[in-house]
Automatic annotation (TrEMBL):
InterPro entries per UniProt: 8ODP, Nudix_hydrolase, NUDIX_hydrolase-like_dom_sf, NUDIX_hydrolase_CS, NUDIX_hydrolase_dom
Subcellular location: Cytoplasm
Reactions performed catalytically: N(6)-methyl-ATP + H2O = N(6)-methyl-AMP + diphosphate + H(+); N(6)-methyl-dATP + H2O = N(6)-methyl-dAMP + diphosphate + H(+); 8-oxo-dGTP + H2O = 8-oxo-dGMP + diphosphate + H(+); 2-oxo-dATP + H2O = 2-oxo-dAMP + diphosphate + H(+)
Protein purpose: Oxidized purine nucleoside triphosphate hydrolase which is a prominent sanitizer of the oxidized nucleotide pool. Catalyzes the hydrolysis of 2-oxo-dATP (2-hydroxy-dATP) into 2-oxo-dAMP. Also has a significant hydrolase activity toward 2-oxo-ATP, 8-oxo-dGTP and 8-oxo-dATP. Through the hydrolysis of oxidized purine nucleoside triphosphates, prevents their incorporation into DNA and the subsequent transversions A:T to C:G and G:C to T:A. Also catalyzes the hydrolysis of methylated purine nucleoside triphosphate preventing their integration into DNA.
Residue ranges of the region described as Disordered: 150-175
Protein name, UniProt field: Oxidized purine nucleoside triphosphate hydrolase
Cofactor(s) the record lists: Mg(2+)
Protein keywords: Cytoplasm, Hydrolase, Magnesium, Metal-binding, RNA-binding
Domain of life: Archaea
Enzyme class label: hydrolase
Alphabetized Pfam families for the sequence: NUDIX
One GO MF term: dATP diphosphatase activity
Length: 175
């Protein structure tokens, strides 16, 4: 089974009084438009597969740096997602969020970064299951879920069949 990570950097957006911008204060999340590999052409958080000997947190930090050039710190565990394909466990994904980072998001070969207000996340251009768990992650809740896909490899061309999802879970192992 593949072990992978996702990281969702968050920042507060406040209206600039001087420009007469009357939008409400909101949180924005840093998404990427993935340019290659699994989920190509879709939006996601920065992330990817664990390398040998790496902890999930180390992986999330490395992938965020490699994909968008942002140095993230103080990652908070927000979710554990299991993706099954035709009844077999395919990928286990650790989900993090953070408000601590240095640098400016910069495009790479793999990803085009974009700050998006959390109530404007483009779920119609993401993995089909994301609308079920990502809103909770962006609102500060924790999730554990299993998402079942059918139809054979690759995972991003399989059909999303059904799921189980729990909110407000605690993660004992701090991974
Ligand atoms: N948001 C979301 N992410 C998912 C789902 N399923 C799934 O594998 N992912 C994530 C886990 C990983 O962060 C990412 C896939 O890993 P990756 O980006 O390293 O895959 P890749 O094939 O491009 O790998 P590579 O060429 O860069 O080695 O997609 C899903 O249903 N929703």
């Amino acid at each position: 089974m593949i072990e992978a990570t996702l990281c969702f950097p968050l920042r507060e957006w406040t209206p600039d009084e001087r420009t007469g911008d009357d939008r409400e204060r909101t949180d924005e999340v840093l998404l990427i438009e993935k340019r290659r590999g699994l989920g190509e052409g879709w939006y996601n958080g920065p992330g990817g597969k664990l390398e040998n000997g790496e902890t999930p947190r180390e992986c999330a930090v490395r992938e965020t740096r490699e994909e968008v050039g942002l140095a993230v710190r103080n990652l908070e565990k927000a979710g554990e997602l299991t993706f099954t394909l035709d009844g077999d466990r395919h990928t286990f994904c650790h989900v993090y969020r953070t408000r601590s980072f240095d640098g400016e998001p910069t495009p790479s070969d793999e990803a085009r970064p974009e700050w998006v207000p959390i109530d404007e996340v483009p779920y119609d251009r993401m993995w089909e299951d994301d609308r079920l768990w990502l809103p909770a992650v962006l609102e500060g809740d924790t999730v554990a879920g299993e998402f079942r896909f059918e139809g054979g490899e690759p995972l991003d061309e399989a059909d999303f069949a059904d799921h189980d999802l729990e909110r407000d879970v605690s993660f004992e192992d701090r991974s």
